[in-house]
Amino acid sequence: MSNWQELEQQYLMNTVERIPITLVRGQGVRVWDEDGREYLDFVGGWAVNSLGHCPPVVIKAVEEQLNTLIQASNQFYTIPQVRLAELLVQNSCLDKVFFCNSGAEANDGAVKLARRYGKLNLNGAYEIVTTMGSFHGRTLAMVAATGQSKFQQPYVPLPNGFVNVEYNSVESIKAATTNQTCAVMLEPVQGEGGVNLPDDSYLATVREWCDRMGILLILDEIQTGLGRTGTLFAYQQLGVEPDIMTLAKGLASGIPIGAILAKDRASVFTPGEHGSTFGGNPLACAAGYATLKFILDQNIAGNVMSVGHYLITGLESLGQKFQFITDIRGRGLLVALEFSSDIAQAVVMACLDRGLLVNRLKTNALRFMPPLIIGNEEVDEALAILNAALSSITN
Ligand SMILES: Cc1ncc(COP(=O)(O)O)c(C=O)c1O
Q: I want to staple 137 with a disulfide (CB 3.0 to 4.6 A). Which of 45, 54, 142, 330 is the partner?
């Protein structure tokens, strides 16, 4: 174990089971550890490094902004914030933006916005319906929203006002809706919870139900947004428009940022009702603008669609060869590979030994969320390593 890893145990809270390498540098789709070993990165900073590591367009924008204005109080107008909001609105179905610093904070704010809407328009309704297996972040309220007991149990009692119902069941959403309900909050594809894809009609039917009841639909596109699933936003493939949408992860290529977007009718905050010191900070917004502009100008979502298909096809070939592969699922470059037994950690380590970083999604499943700029060659390289790693597990 290197000194950094010993020091980590001495000085940092023990909140994550780390993989035993210390990353010191990244470029494009590759990272290097402190011993100079190179890895092909199919974790991508947990679906953040969409343009790869240290993308030149983002470096340029951040360098310019660093030399111009890093932070200003939100009492004042700042230009990068307005430019990024304009670009988001021009390219989505939403009308207004609020910037914050992370995904959990964006979702927390989205829930506040929906509660505000409920107070003003729904006789004070405040409850949010979410689904089992979802993941919405780590603040106390988002732990309550996240329908997974392993995240909730250590912290009970949780804030009230959240109802977790069965996933992919419109009937359970209907059954949970009362006159206290102000919104339904969903991920278009459940990411952290297992790369779980709903039935084709699920989102559209939930949308119809929300319209019928006059309640809001919040889509958490923190993991699925910004090209990850093959369109700029996942809702575009599902035939629905959310009233509120949240973004974070890939929005600024790794500079922390989060965003709440809302349709005009749901954009009900008034001055002082919500805020953030760093939210909308010029540096993060300059990085966000450069990232989003690149995604749009280079048709990165189109690349994701084709490379994503290529990846799934390659995984299906591995599925023919290794009988213990029981499922391959995903959208775009958010893909899971499931096994019949709990070998995921062993596969992660076997890939690591061979120079590939992959994420253990569950004890029996891996998740791939590489940079969105990868090509078929990198997929071939990853598949060859995975093939060798899986062979080593069976032998
Ligand atoms: C769908 C979704 N929502 C919210 C979050 C929380 O984001 P953050 O870790 O930036 O708070 C995540 C993180 O994985 C996520 O995948």
A: 142
